Structures are given as structure tokens and as C-alpha cells.
Amino acid sequence: MVELNASGNDALYQDIATTPGVKVRWQAAHKGRLGVDTAVVEFGAPNGKMVQQSEMKDGKWGWGVYKGEYIIPEDQTTTRFQFRAVSTATGSVGAGNYLDDVQFSTQSILQLTGSFSANSIEVNQDVDYNLHIVNVGGMTAEKNQITIKLPSHLAYTPGTIDTENIVAGTQKYNPSTQELTFEVKALNKDATADIKIPLKGTSITNSVAPSTSATYSDQNFNDDTYLATGNDDSVTITPASWSDWSPTEVYMTGDVVRYDNKYYTAKWWSLGDNPNESEVWQIMNEWMEEWHPLKGYNVGEKVLFEGKIYQAKWWSQGEQPDKSTIWALVQ
Hints:
Blueprint: E1 2-5, E2 11-17, E3 23-31, E4 37-44, E5 50-58, E6 64-71, E7 78-87, E8 96-106, E9 110-116, E10 120-122, E11 126-135, E12 141-149, E13 154-156, E14 162-163, E15 172-174, E16 179-184, E17 192-201, E18 205-208, E19 211-218, E20 226-229, E21 231-232, E22 235-238, E23 243-244, E24 250-251, E25 256-259, E26 262-266, E27 270-271, E28 281-283, E29 296-297, E30 302-305, E31 308-312, E32 316-317, E33 327-329
């Protein structure tokens, strides 16, 4: 706590580096010493014109809380914010105008980063999704509501969130939409929160990622609600039983092999048949690329187009699979 009046109707100020066009928040608590005292809040360029933001007028019986926002003007790279005494209850310039809890900073900004404990798992194996949250803004972020929409390939058991340095509020999980929501405690500037969410792979997929977002507000300011979207890594879910293809190995119907980082199922008995070239092998749809009009395809390559599999009879580029004889419908 400080007192503005000492030897006169003085001002308390601070100059800080600012970015033109950025919105900053300010807040201050004010109280009179012997009665009703008056002071003003002013912003502007150092040694330039100061613009009044608010008048603070309070008695000695309780603190008045004042707050607002200020857009940094063009070319103003240094901003002075000051609190200037105007008058006191007794008329004395030597005592009055208490100040406390002064804040002046940019809005809160949450960054969300999601990662998996493993890049690849097999069906029915467990994997942890680790969410890291950091407030890189100036104000404290509160009312932090986190939403994680999980893909259908991953299953979550309600109530199993593990938190390291946060307090998670009410957790809700909607199994029909696979949306998990929970609250995170207020995060000061540079504060972090880490959440570990246990998941299980339920079906194979080449690459799948959650969709993470957060809504939040600046502490003590309810006029704006911000939205942050996460930067989420992906995980691959492979078949539970498979082996790397070998030209000397005998394979039976239904055997699963990996070749060139793709997975194939044997249609019938096979020996020495290259999975990328032989009809003996059927690529699992999850590892098949969608057809692209700008990409060239060699003889025998397979693509997905509108949910169907096509195989190139000869080299092709720009020939739409369902309209060209270059492509043969496989299934």
C-alpha cells in the first residue's frame, strides 16, 4: 500500500515499454485516509499529454476498486501510467489517497500443447495424452475451461485425469461426442499447468490427434472471453498382431505384415509376393492415401477415393479414379 499525498498533491507513475495497438488492462484499489479523498488515473506518453482514465473518490471506511482498459496509441512505444492526487477530506496536501493492488498489463494468453507418451501403440494398448498449458500474457487467466474432443480411435475412462500442478474443477465426459471438459485454476503470468489423460487405442489408424481448446478471461474482467486452440501431436494405432514382411516367409490367409510403413492383410497363401505389388496383399484402408489430382501414380499403386479403393493400371496423373479407365475399382 502507498499514500499519494506526502508533501503535496503528488503523482505516482511508472514508464513501461509498450506495443502500439495492443490492449492493456489496469486495476487499482483506492481509499481515503481521514475521509473522502480524490485521485485520478492517467495514461500517456512520458513528458506528453496524459489522458484521464478514471476518477477515484472514496472514504476511509472501505476500498474502492477501479479498472479499465487502454489501447496503446500509434507510435507510443513507451507508456506512462500514473495515479495523481486531486484532493483530500481535510484539505491537507500532506495526508491522504491510499493506493493498493495496482495492476497494469496485457491480456492473458493461454498456449496449449498436447503430446502422447508414445508415437505408436497397438490396438488395446494404453497411451497417455499430456496437455501442457502456459500463460504467456500479462494478466492472470481465470475461468479456464478446457475442452478435449477425442477421436473415435481412442477411449477414455471418466474420472482418470491426473494433474501435477493444478486443481481441476468439475470434470464432464460425453461418451456420444467423446468430449472431455474440465476447469483449471487461475494461472498467473508465466504459470503452467500439466494434465495427464490416460487413453486406450480401440481401432487402427495411420495418424490421429485430439482437438483441444480453451476459453478463459482476464481476472476481474468479465467483458471479454478468449479462445485458444491447441497444438496437438498425433498417435498411430497399429494392428495387435503383425510382423515385418519377409520375401522368404510363408504367409497364410489373414496374416498382417508391415511393409514400407504400411500394413497389409494376406488374402491367401503367399511366398515372396511384394505387398506393394501383388494382389495377394490388401492394404489396410487406414494406411492408404487419398487420391490427389496433382500427384503422379505408378502402375499398381492404390488410392482411396470417396471411400473406395482404386488401383492404377498404368502411370496416371489428374485422372479421377471413378471417371477414368486408367483406374480399376478394387473394392
